[in-house]
Design brief:
BirA Bifunctional Protein, domain 2; 2 domains; nine-stranded mixed sheet; alpha+beta; Rossmann fold
Amino acid sequence: MAAFESLRGFRDYAPPDAGARSELRRRMRAAARRCGFVELETPSVESLELFQVKSGAEISEELWAFEDKGHRRVALVAETTPSLARVFVDRAKAEPLPVKWFTVSRLWRYEEPQAGRTREFLQVNLDILGVRATTAEAEVLATAALLLDEAGATGLYAFRLNDRALAEGLGRRFGAVVAPERFFRALDRYRKASVQEFRSELSAAGVPDGSVDELVALLAATGRGVPLGEAETFLARLEALGLDDAALEGTRRLRELAGLLPRFGLGDRVVLDPTVVRGLAYYTSVVFEAFDASGDGRALFGGGRYDNLVELFGGPPTPAVGLAIGDQTLELLLRRHGRWPEGEPPLDTYVVAVTPAEVPTALSWVQQLRRAGVSADADLMARSMSRQLKEAARRRARRALIAGPQELARGVALERDLATGEQRERPVEEALRPA
């Protein structure tokens, strides 16, 4: 019989990678809670209509959708935001504002697998509901920065920031009135396409040739993004183009955020980038993404403000902002820079039985240590002492607690520091107390 393999687009995570991924989730959960976010958990299967309300019928192309045994059209969850909106609408009358929720969810999308993209993945979402001021954007970005730093990505990423109203206004200013969505797609591909390809896409969006030259020159002047210290000059240059009032609201929000973000400790890792538009139509104003600061790889996350979504689901008008951090691109970033965790956290104590006669005692000590809150383990296969010590080293244990017949006769255990090799005798009761 042929060996079974995982399906295309799905991955197994054997030790130590499964432990490393668990450790990253633990760190990110702890960071979110430190920032005042509370965890929300939602189902893995939802009504297909839930996603169609948010994204239209075309979303079905990416969904694992099927008819269940009750003849209902359902789908594996492809993103958490619709579920979050459903839960909030149900609780809106009783839920104190602002709401700061985070989720850690397993999601599914029927997409073409590639580096950084699988058909099953994990995503950490941060969402703030009920705050219209740009302090919400600053708070969610500062929290995301802490999550990434705690995951080990300190110094490896930066944020790009833009406003949809500004992007739409630039489209109108440069003549993309007939095909604004094509203009958005062209902007989104600016850093991925050649100059000639970009110019062709602008022309296809309805931008006249002379305006194409002007826009290409404007974007080229931004380099890899405009630092916050230069934001005022850049925004003033955009405003001097003669933007309409809606677009000027976008520059006002960006100017406000540029002044606010340094106070949140983000002055060194945020740039303004007029090419960031994000693909989802429900974003209403500020949008952002994180990217590898070295310039390689896909976006680490994307997000923005979605002030109309709760109302779309039948709830009261509710301003909202959020983002989603995917596990695949974060893993690529950490591995590329040698920051991937070793696996499960190191074991504190490995209890070693010198002879088979001490195995029951060793196992009893393990149980006492565990109940005292200490991570501990022992050999279950009656192997030699040297094999047990090798296993303790492999498990990265802090110490070995050795149970030998002579020591037990005197009521002591031999404690060996596995980093230095130093060892000493300690009374058994003392050795079994948490450090």
